[in-house]
Structures are given as structure tokens and as C-alpha cells.
Amino acid sequence: MQLPWPIAEAVQRKTLADAEYYASQKRAEAEAYQITKTAAAQQQAVRALLAELKDKGDLAEHYIQFMIAQELKENRKWIISGDSTPIVNVQGSLLRGND
User: Fold this and answer.
1) What's the pLDDT tens digit per position in 7-46?
2) Cβ–Cβ contacts within 10 Å for residue 41, how many?
3) Which end of the chain has fewer CB atoms within 10 angstroms, the N or the C?
4) Distances (CA, A) of 64 to 14, 23, 72, 93
């Protein structure tokens, strides 16, 4: 049995819309996964850096201040526009080993 033309077209459009929704959802999931993995890698790198600098005193403090300034300089649009949050979050307690 063949469906009337308007119904067949509606079914075809719904199928196409479902396929586009599924593809968009998969792209969003892949992007979220990539963001999560990147953030985890960055956190691990920051922790390793802080562990290395832990006993360096003033030198470590000045280096971290420099790195924060560089990150803010590179990502100033995030701070000015408020559209996003910088990924680097170096807290003083981490430097002192109180994590």
C-alpha cells in the first residue's frame, strides 16, 4: 500500500529531520568528549608543573604569576566578553601542596 503524496512527503521529512538530529547529537557528544579529555590533560600538566615548582619559593611564585598573565593575555576575549571561562585555574593552595 502506497501512502498519499502529502503523507509520504511528511514521513520522508520526519525521517530526514530525525537523521539530522541524530548526527548533530553525535557531533555534540564527540565535541564534549574532546573538551573533557583536553581539560583533563591540561589539569594533569598543571599539577605536574606545580609539583615541580613546589619547593622553589619566590621563583615559583613569580613564574606562576607570569604564566597566569600570559594565559589571561591570550584569552582576554573570554574575560572581557564573559562568553567563556579560562581553563587555567592555578590556586595558591595547590602551590603549597594542600590539594
Assistant:
1) 888 999 999 999 999 999 999 999 999 999 999 998 998 8
2) 10
3) N
4) 54, 42, 12, 13
Closest of 77, 93, 85 to residue 39, by C-alpha: 85
Q: Please give the pLDDT value at position 5.
A: 78
SS3 annotation, the chain: CCCCHHHHHHHHHHHHHHHHHHHHHHHHHHHHHHHHHHHHHHHHHHHHHHHHHCCCCHHHHHHHHHHHHHHHHHCHHHHHHCCCCCCCCCCHHHHCCCC
pLDDT at position 67: 85
- Rounded to the nearest integer, the mean pLDDT of the chain is 79
Cell of 27: 557531533
Q: What is the CA radius of gyration of the chain?
A: 24
Give me the count of residues in the chain.
99
Is pTM beyond 0.85? Reply is: no
